[in-house]
Every structure is written in C-alpha cells, then in structure tokens.
Amino acid sequence: MKICRLQDSSFTHADVLELIKESFQQWQENGLDSVLLRYTPAEFEQNTADAVVLVAIDTESNELIGTTTLVPHRSNHEVGGYHKYLAVKPSCKGKGVASQLLKSCVEVAKSRDYSYILSNTSVHADWSVRWHKKNGFKIIGYFVSTASKYFCYRFRYQLKSPSIWNSALCAHVAFCASYLKTRAMRTQDGGMTGFGNAVLKVFRSLKLV
Ligand SMILES: CC(C)(COP(=O)(O)OP(=O)(O)OC[C@H]1O[C@@H](n2cnc3c(N)ncnc32)[C@H](O)[C@@H]1OP(=O)(O)O)[C@@H](O)C(=O)NCCC(=O)NCCS
Fold first, then answer.
1. Single pTM value for the model
2. Which CATH superfamily is domain 2-205 in?
3. What is the DSSP secondary-structure string of the chain?
C-alpha cells in the first residue's frame, strides 16, 4: 500500500467520492445519515479546495482503498487542521489502512506546524468512536449535526506539547461543559429546547447575540 496526495495520483475527486459513498454505506446500514452520501463530485472538490486530500492505493491492484482529508482550521491563537472524509473500502477495513492514513495526515500537519487536529463523528458510529480513541484522539466536545440530525463527538489530537490539551482532565472538563450546554440547549433534530429558546431570548434582549 502507498499513501500520497490525490493530486499526485491518477485518481480524481469523483473516484474518491465514490469510495467515500461505498464506505459510508456502513452508516446507512446502522440507521445513520451522512451528508456525504448526497455530495456531488463538484461539491466535494469545492469543499476540499484548500485542503490536503490523501489517498491510500493498493500497489498490487492499483485500486483506491482509502482516503482522508486535512482541512486548515484556526482557533484563538492556534493553527491546526480538521480531519474529514475518512473512509476505507469495505473489503479492506480492519487492516490498519485508516491508521496509516492518519499517520500521513499527522506528518502533513507537523510539516505545517499545526498544533492540533480536530475530528467529528456521530455518537452512534461505535466503530468510528472506537477508531478515534484507539488512534490517540481525545473526546473534547459534544454538539448536534443539524444536517444529519444526530449528536456528535468532537475529538482532538494534540500535536504540540506542553499544552493544557495534553491533560486528560482538561479534555474531560471541556467535554462535560460542552455536553451540558448542548443537551440543555439543543434537540437531536437541530432545534432549540424550551430552555435554549429562553436563554436565546435573554441574550437577544441584552444584545449579546
Ligand atoms: C472507521 C474506518 C475508517 C476505520 O478504518 P480501518 O482501516 O478499518 O481502521 P484500522 O484498521 O486502522 O483500525 C481498526 C480499529 O478501528 C476500530 N474499528 C474499526 N471497525 C470497527 C467495527 N466494525 N467495530 C468496532 N470497532 C471498529 C477498532 O478500534 C479497530 O481496532 P481493534 O479491532 O483493535 O479494536 C472504517 O471503518 C470506515 O471507513 N468506516 C466507514 C466510514 C466512517 O465511519 N468514517 C469515519 C467517519 S468520522
């Protein structure tokens, strides 16, 4: 297997999206929706225009067997990346392809002096949650995906140290605060709870939002 940037391969955005859709059938089979299943190649290309799209290729068959994307991200004084569109061909799952893709992603992130990599997944996608935990991501947030109508975990992979994010306690506190805020304010279908609406009304009257 070799991993390279999409632009350095013979594959196109349409090929990568086809692989993503095939891989994300796992979501549908588990009763989960994903906006990726409705993407067009043009939308995928547009959404990854400033990103690094990595592809894993089986060197014997020259088949596309996996992909992931690192999108630049900024928060406060730090620069990092968002790990998105991770997908492995169904027949190649469980062989370390996704872990190898992450390794390459980390190399790209380090070469750009990124401090962190963020990633999201549905709380119901057990296989993905387990993969993230096994591969060094810490759960730091909880939010609702309005497009797909499910609660999601936000993960952080810390690249630089020392940092408060190296502390398990910090990640835990951030997660708890985010969980309580989201569960108090938001419903799973992306709407606001009664409490959320009341808080919003107060904030609006104080011109804070
Ligand atoms: C998640 C995904 C990318 C993992 O790819 P992979 O190449 O099979 O993963 P790796 O071989 O690197 O790692 C295997 C680990 O992932 C987790 N995992 C993968 N499939 C799993 C499953 N069906 N059930 C539970 N855990 C699973 C486990 O931690 C496993 O290690 P373990 O068996 O020792 O516990 C792949 O299952 C996939 O493409 N799924 C559909 C798309 C998706 O969910 N993408 C993530 C979106 S954020």
1. 0.95
2. Gcn5-related N-acetyltransferase (GNAT) (3.40.630.30)
3. -EEEEGGGSS--HHHHHHHHHHHTHHHHHTT---GGGG--HHHHHHHTTTSEEEEEEETTTTEEEEEEEEEEEEETTEEEEEEEEEEE-GGGTTSSHHHHHHHHHHHHHHHTT-SEEEEEEETT-HHHHHHHHHTT-EEEEEEEETTTTEEEEEEEEE-SSS-GGG-HHHHHHHHHHHHHHHHHHB-TTS-B-HHHHHHHHHHHHTT--
Q: Give 113-160 pLDDT, tens digit per residue.
A: 999 999 999 999 999 999 999 999 999 999 999 888 899 999 999 999
Radius of gyration of the CA atoms of the chain, in A: 18
Protein residue with least CA distance to atom 19, ligand 1: 127
Ligand 1 centroid to 203 CA: how many Å? Answer: 42
Q: Ligand 1 pocket: which of 83, 85, 128, 150 to mutate (most atoms <8 Å of CB)? A: 128
